[in-house]
Amino acid sequence: MHLFINKNYQNNIALEDIACNVGMNPSALCRYYKKHTGKRMFEYLTELRISYATKLLINKNINISQVAYDCGYNLYPQ
């Protein structure tokens, strides 16, 4: 599950995508994840995206909207 999220965090990820990848239904996956990690699955995704954004922002040549897009915070979902 973390492998899927780590590989796809720059894209729009739906709970259903993650659940399908691990062979669980979405509600069962949420309960399982919370029980085993103590946090919600999308908290992990947000932490991952913010961590990557922090690294990108160190590079002063990158526009903030590009950083947001590169981190999976797309302003215009497809």
Helix and strand layout, with pairings?
Blueprint: H1 2-8, H2 15-22, H3 26-37, H4 41-57, H5 64-70
Can you walk me through this structure?
- The chain is an all-alpha fold.
- It has 5 helices and no strands.
- The longest helix has 17 residues, at 41-57.
- The protein is elongated, with a radius of gyration of 14 Å.
- The chain starts with a helix and ends in an 8-residue tail after the last helix.
- 6% of the residues are buried.
- The model has no long low-confidence stretch (mean pLDDT 91).
Order of helices and strands: HHHHH
Number of strands: 0
Fraction of helical residues: 55-70%
- Approximate strand percentage: under 5%
- Shape category: elongated
Helix/strand class: mainly alpha
Total count of helical runs of at least 4 residues: 5
Instruction: For the record, give the distance between the C-alpha atoms at the N and C termini, rounded to a whole number.
Output: 23 Å
Major beta-sheet overview? none
- Overall pLDDT score: 91
Radius of gyration: 14 Å
Low-confidence segments, given as residue ranges, are none
